[in-house]
Amino acid sequence: MSDVTRARNGRPVHHWRRNVVQLAALLTAAAVVDGVTNLVGHGPVGPALLLVPATVLVAAAGFHSWWARRHGHAPPTGDTGARPRSESQAGPSEQSREPSATVSTESALWRMRTTVQDEPGSLAALCTALAGLRVDILSLQTHPLAEGTVDEFLLRAPGGLAAAELTRVVSVAGGAGTWIERADAHDLVDAPTRVLGLATRTALDAAELPLALRQLLGRCTIRSLPAVPAGGGRGPAAVPVEGALEDTVMRLRAPEGGVITVERPYLPFTPTEFARARALVELDARLGPRVPRSQDVLTLPEGNDITVRRVDIGDLRSAKEMHERCSARTLGMRYHGPVGDADRYLSHLLSPRFGRTIAVQTASGRIVGLGHLLWDGDETEVALLVEDAWQRRGIGGELLRRLVGLAVEAGCESVYAVTQSSNTGMVAAMRGLGLPLDYQVEEGTLVITARLDAAVEKPVAERLSGAGERGKD
Q1: Degrees to nearest 5, angle at CA 41 with 36 and 47
Q2: Model pTM score
Q3: Rounded CA gap, 273 and 279, in Å?
Q4: Do the domains at 109-188 and 295-468 have one common CATH topology?
Q5: What is the pLDDT of residue 66?
Q6: CATH (one of 3.40.50.40, 3.40.630.30, 3.20.20.70, 2.30.30.60) for 295-468
Q7: What would the mean pLDDT of 217-237 be, rounded to a whole number?
Q8: Is the per-residue pLDDT at 350 higher than 50?
């Protein structure tokens, strides 16, 4: 028996008191045994009395040995504070390594898509390979193809696991054409819930269709081509009513007769994705033109009340009347071309298919300012036009702040404005956003890009939403 049972300040503690007591007990037991032996040995039944307890002791020892072999490897119950002997005798270096086993608990979310053979056991082999890397499969969608099946995973993997290692293991397990990218908490929503949410957004606002398609299909470029271009010329090539799917490009018939082109060069579209996108477009076509009718009433510094609201193609006549009241210089700064062609752009700009347009109108209902947020492929453009008599009253800045707020809500990474270096009003309005700006000058044309980074997204959203709460009807 060891007399070292614990350590204090790194030095063993010897229990000499316990040793003295144990020695005294041993001497006392020897004296008792000697007395009993003398008493029994001289009696007539002494040998029998000694054999009986000896037999009982042998049986008890055998039972204890069998019990110890059967239950000796059971884990501690945790009812007492005693630690296993091996842990209590661990050295400082071993004890110092114990906490490190629980420190690395970070994980990363990944979206992965791979093609496997359409045969029994192929998916099981892939899942087994992922389990070997301690990767948790949070969700799985299957996209059947003519040959093989595209499996789309949402994975939770150890934080130190690299994408290249994931791709290598999947390839060894039979996956082909593997594509992987980081995911975030928004991807934790299951596919039916996400599709229903996108359908709801599209039903409430026709301008949401391009954004809904982008969120449905991932990173892609979406372009809306009108049936008759704003500057004249031939329209887009004819597309069947049911649309067309060509590997990494899908073309869908827009409700107004144009074409919606969706391109994703890094990954081919599947028939399942094509059917979902077509269903959203068909929903938009059945509901017809629509925009939210909410409006805000604001008071200008000089005391005039103005109304800010969303407008669409139904406001085309009022927008053209505003054009007639604008000077040639104002129209030239806005459209960067012949003033006579300005009216031709309005049908395109007011269509919710190509973005969102908000207008400022007076108490009499006359439109005196227009602000456009235009979907330009995977980029976003902002543009302003304020009637001459209403300039320098803060209308342009108010429109721009609201447009950027809409861009933030839509998840845009940046917005850009195309103007001229002499347009000091537009430059001042962009600077007034308080966002990081990039400037690029090409042949007298100034392009100002405002970056909506994650670091400034929340403050911008709060400031812009706060500005829009004043006097809301």
Answers
A1: 110
A2: 0.60
A3: 10
A4: no
A5: 62
A6: 3.40.630.30
A7: 67
A8: yes
The confidence score (pLDDT) of residue 438 equals 92
Which tokens in the block code for residue 104? Answer: 């690395």
d(CA 319, CA 316): 5
| pLDDT tens profile 181-204 | 888 777 777 778 888 888 898 888
SS (H, E, C) the chain: CCCEEEEECCEEEECHHHHHHHHHHHHHHHHHHHHHHHHHHCCCCHHHHHHHHHHHHHHHHHHHHHHHHHHCCCCCCCCCCCCCHHHHCCCHHHHHHCHHHHCCCCEEEEEEEEEECCCCCHHHHHHHHHHHCCCEEEEEEEEECCCCEEEEEEEEEECCCCHHHHHHHHHHCCCEEEEEEECCHHHHCCHHHHHHHHHHHHHHCHHHHHHHHHHHHCCCEEEEECCCCCCCCCCCCCCCCCCEEECCEEEEECCCCCEEEEECCCCCCCHHHHHHHHHHHHHHHHHCCCCCCCEEEEECCCCCEEEEEEECHHHHHHHHHHHHHCCHHHHHHHHCCCHHHHHHHHHHHHCCCCEEEEEEECCCCCEEEEEEEEEECCEEEEEEEECHHHCCCCHHHHHHHHHHHHHHHCCCCEEEEEEECCCHHHHHHHHCCCCCEEEEEECCEEEEEEECCHHHHHHHHHHHHHHHCCCEC
What's the rounded Cα separation, in Å, for the pair 166 and 133? 8
Please, what's the largest Cα pairwise distance for the chain? 139
Query: What is the Cα–Cα distance from 327 to 390, expressed in whole angstroms?
Result: 12
Residues 360-400 have pLDDT tens digits of 999 888 999 999 999 877 788 999 999 999 998 889 999 99
Residue whose token pair is 């449905």 = 216
Indicate the burial class of 367 (C-beta count within 10 angstroms; 0-12, 13-18, 19 or more): buried
Superfamily (CATH) of domain 109-188: ACT domain (3.30.70.260)
Sorted by where each begins, the domain ranges of the chain are 109-188, 191-287, 295-468
340 is written with which tokens? 């006579």
What are 23-63's pLDDT values in tens digits?
666 566 666 666 666 665 565 555 565 566 666 666 666 66
Q: What spatial distance separates the first Cα and last Cα of the chain, rounded to whole Å? A: 87
252-275 pLDDT tens trace = 988 777 888 999 877 888 898 999
